[in-house]
Amino acid sequence: MRQLTACNGSEQLVKGIRIQTHTCRVAVVGSGAAGMAAALRLAERGVTDVVLLTEDLLAGTSRNTGSDKQTYYKLTLSGDEPDSIGQMAQTLFSGGSMDGDLARVEASLSAECFFWLASKGVPFPRNTYGEAVGYKTDHDPLSRASSAGPLTSRLMVESLQDALGATPVQLFDRQQAVKLLTDRRPGAVRGVLCLSLAGPDPVYSLVMCQAVVWAVGGPALVYADVVYPGSQLGGTAPALEAGAAAVNLTEWQYGLASIAPRWNVSGSYQQVLPAYVSTDPDGRNPRHFLDEGIPDRMKRLGAVFCKGYQWPFDVRKLPGSSQVDLLVYRETVLRGRRVFLDFGQNPDGLSLARADLDAETAAYLDRTQAWAPLPWQRLRQMNEPAFAFYLDHGVDLSRERLEIRLSAQHHNGGLAVDANWETTLPGLFAVGEVSGTHGVYRPGGSALNSGQVGALRAAQAIERRLGVEPDPVFDTTDLLGQAADYLGGRCEPEQDGLEPELLQAWQLAGERMSRLAGPLRDTTQLNAAFDAVSQALADSRRFLGISSLPGLSLACRYRDMLLTQRFLLGAMRDYLQHGGVSRGSALYLDPAGEVPGGVPDVFRARTGPDTLTGSVQRTWLETPGDLLSPLRVNWRPVRPLPHPDEAFEVVWQAWRRENAQEGRQHET
């Protein structure tokens, strides 16, 4: 992968700002596991002149996140239990509000993508017989999960980056994508406008191309309480502004996570049964608090243990393991206290005996031979890398409490895509978490597979399209005119001293979203929150008068945050108007509702049958480019799950025709 040090076009002065132009065939935006896979797949398929645009090659979720045993979900490839593409597709589809064609494609290509990653050097384990051994994960009826350890996604990125080093793909680093440009036809994407982050003065790059692969990750910036690493902000807004439709924006995944460092406290961290302790804001007056909501000690310990493999907050697990999430939320958000996992003492500050545990918990400690006296000792017996992770980040779990909060971890919704991962804007493909390929529930680790499958499908579709389309003659004048319109709408007279106010506004917007529209959504406040975000978006233009970096970059991000929040809140309001109830990882609080499963009365919520699980919610701007224009929302039935039953000869004939047109044979 070659570093792009200079644009291959001209430099223009637009609205007093320098814009450098560059042309290529395909621009891949984002350098995580999905973006790098897309760039490498394109290179391997012979697509030339590919540019990988990224804000920071070392940033992002894939490179900087994980869990106690980060999961990759794929078809069962070991053991004697039968599995099939159809069965795996059914599992994905049964999560609700997921399109069947996407489920079928993700299932059918999961093994290919898994072995492709292994061939690039990702160390997925095999047994003596060469089987890719697996285990069960969230919402998984079979043992389809695999892992290369706590940093599986980082190993994926590093292996893909090494492979890209042998390709002609060009890396254009320190570029913040701020706008998608089209050829003025109905939405055909023809370029990306980027703000250079390399120096103190604002310089823009206009990258003109035939196709864009949007691989910017999930919109981590919309919440204050997040598991996402600090280097991950997302970039859904430029696609929404350009008119791309989004789906299932209401569906997120939330779970307990440590604050410093940001990390899922799932799996072994719960199964070793640490103590849950809350304190005053200054760290004084510690107390055990889970017994307030779960008085029975055996049930309380069982709920903590189950948080290990039932890590996402799930309204179906009330009462049960998800009651732990609600009790943590009550301590932190409603009572203003701090909550810690204490691996230096047992739950309730008492000794731990077999008689205290239910059969499942005791049997697991038997199998893992983890009966040491204290939680941190059991963690080292059960999963030494999980203990070492925090030690490597300056936290000794044998001596220090670990502060946690209920945080946003993954967006199941996102940009609407078809079975080739192309959005509603022709030429714009969305891969990875930015694409809305998941429904209400998804098996743990299926996001890593989805990103790899989407990258492959997008590369295949782009190769086919570029093989029959002539190289375009870019209308540079028109594209620069669009950039000028954009910059003209952003540039106020230069102002100084706005950065502190901008940071305060950013914090306020994130905290409001976490408090009112996170895992617990206040139905009485969503309308007011939507109006507040819309007003903040209208007022945000003045921050664009900041004339230097990094302030201008943050101002652009703040605007993107507010537009994305506006879409999310609009989707939540519409969901309730269509009879939506608490589901997935979201509890819709309603004083006229019911108390689900005997949890504290403060969590009274809308409950009942989910009548929308067979539908997909679709949201888009009525007037692309106008951030405050009305949001259009509609509902459609999910695309059904395909059950192909085609004769081999028929498929083979079509396959030969397709490859004859391309002039060569290649793998699917």
Question: How does this model look, in words?
Answer:
The chain is of the alpha/beta class. The protein is 34% helix and 18% strand. Among the domains are: 254-408; 502-613, Methane Monooxygenase Hydroxylase, Chain G, domain 1, CATH 1.20.58. The strands form six sheets. It has a six-stranded parallel sheet with strand order 1-8-5-4-12-21, with helices on one face. α17 packs antiparallel against α18 (551-577). The longest helix has 27 residues, at 551-577. It is globular and about 75 Å long. The two termini are 24 Å apart. The model is unreliable at 664-668 (pLDDT under 50).
Largest sheet: 6 strands, parallel
What global shape is seen? globular
Q: Trace the largest sheet across and list its strands.
A: 1-8-5-4-12-21
- β-sheet strand percentage: 15-25%
SSE topology sketch:
Blueprint: E1 2-3, E2 11-14, E3 17-23, E4 26-29, H1 33-44, E5 50-53, H2 61-64, E6 72-73, H3 85-93, H4 100-108, H5 110-119, E7 145-146, H6 152-164, E8 170-172, E9 175-182, E10 189-196, E11 203-208, E12 211-214, H7 237-241, E13 246-247, E14 252-258, E15 263-264, H8 268-271, E16 275-279, E17 287-288, H9 297-306, H10 322-334, E18 338-342, H11 359-367, H12 375-382, H13 384-392, E19 402-411, E20 414-415, E21 428-430, H14 446-468, H15 476-490, H16 499-517, E22 520-522, H17 526-539, H18 551-577, E23 587-594, E24 615-621, E25 631-637, H19 648-662
Parallel strand pairs: 1-8, 3-11, 4-5, 4-12, 5-8, 12-21, 22-23
Antiparallel strand pairs: 2-3, 6-7, 9-10, 10-11, 13-20, 13-24, 14-15, 14-19, 16-17, 16-18, 18-19, 24-25
Helix pairs in contact: 1-6, 1-14, 3-4, 12-13, 16-18, 17-18
